[in-house]
Structures are given as structure tokens and as C-alpha cells.
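Friendly challenge for the regulars: who can give me the C-alpha cells for this chain first? No prize, just bragging rights.
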Amino acid sequence: MTLDILNNEPTIGQLVAQRPGRARIFEKHGIDYCCGGGKTLSQVCRELGLDAHHILFELDQRDPQPSADERDWTQASLTELADHIEQVHHQYLKEELPRIEVLSRKVVSVHGNGHPELLEIHKQFTALKEELESHILREERVLFPLCRRLDRQHPDRFHGALEQPISVMVKEHEDAGEALAQLRRLSHNYTPPPDACNSFRRLYEALSRLESDLHQHVHKENNILFPRAIEAVARLGWA
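First reply, four minutes later:
Bragging rights claimed.
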């Protein structure tokens, strides 16, 4: 597998699309496989000062095989993938974002004076929440219906109307990635201080889970759904 990567230089996103379990290895080394998934491993390692051969060795030794219940989303239809993202990742955000907001407000009210970083965490999270809620609404009302029409090969009023909404979504994914990086930095990698109460700890755990789910969510869109939709438009001659 190492020689194959060195010779063919797939992107980080493609590597994770082939084997979703690779995401754990990349996350361990701080390698962005979702918003930065269009870069190759050698590019990323140069930027982060990592040893590419060490990462490749680790992938060789621990390259996760797909589990029996793990879907290969590169083989799914656009409709199946859009449905999955809505039912799993969008639903997660719809349920979790309001819960985290309430929890964050509670923790700030109790610990904000002693831990002023919580005020900035709450501010950053609130802005992210508003952006994500608007983002998934536009995906469900505009972009995903277009993807489903591609599966039906229904060009009615299509006229290449896919690239613009995709470019907007990708930019918003990048903005969300920057917000997540800020939250991780402000929270010292989601490490609660010694005097943290249970609510404080639950807040950091919830933010960490949010980051992990968003990484998977964005990866499935940026590296699988969006490229395949654009390819389908070109293949059908609807651009």
C-alpha cells in the first residue's frame, strides 16, 4: 500500500473514502481529511512538518479494514448518500446544537469569571451554531434535491446549476473548520481544568464529539458527494 500511495499520490480525502478507518490515524496526527482533503499526504506532511514515511508506515501497520457494517459510500448512489447525510449528520446537528448551546450558557454562568476562555468559547460556538443551522437548511432545500435529480437523470432547469451551490457549501465548510480549530485551541484540546464540574466536562466532551462528527460529515460531502455530483453533470452533458 505504501508504494501505491507514493506512486499514485491520492489525496487525503480519497484515502479516507477508500478506508474510513484511516480517519482515526490522520486525526491522531492533526491531519485534516475533510476541508483539507484535496491535498496529498506529501503536501500535508510538508506543511505540518511531519515525516511522511512515518505516517505511511503507520498506515501499513494499522490500516483499518472496513467493518462488516461499514458502508462504502463511494459505491452508493447520490440519493442514498444525500439521504444518509440528512438522516445521520444533519439530524445529529439538529438535536445536538441546541443542547450544547444550553450547556455552554450554563457553564459560562457558573465558571465564566474564573475561566474567561469560556466566554469566547460560547461566542464562537453560538456563531458556529447559527452558520451550521443555515448551512444544512440550504443543503436540504437546494443542493441535495439537485443531487437526487441527477440520479433520476432529470435535467429540468438544471443548466449547470450545481457548481455554484457546491462552491458556497465548500467555503462554509472551510469556515466551520476554522471555527472548530478555534474551539479546540481555546479549550486546550478539550481538556477540562482540574476544578471543572460535571457540566463543564460534559461541555468539552460534547464539543469534541461535534468536531468528530463534523469531520466525517464534511468528508462525505467534500470528498465523495460533491465530486461525484459534478462528474455526473459532466457525464450527462448538463453543464
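Residues 79-236 form one domain. The chain is about 70% helix and 0% strand. Your move, everyone else.
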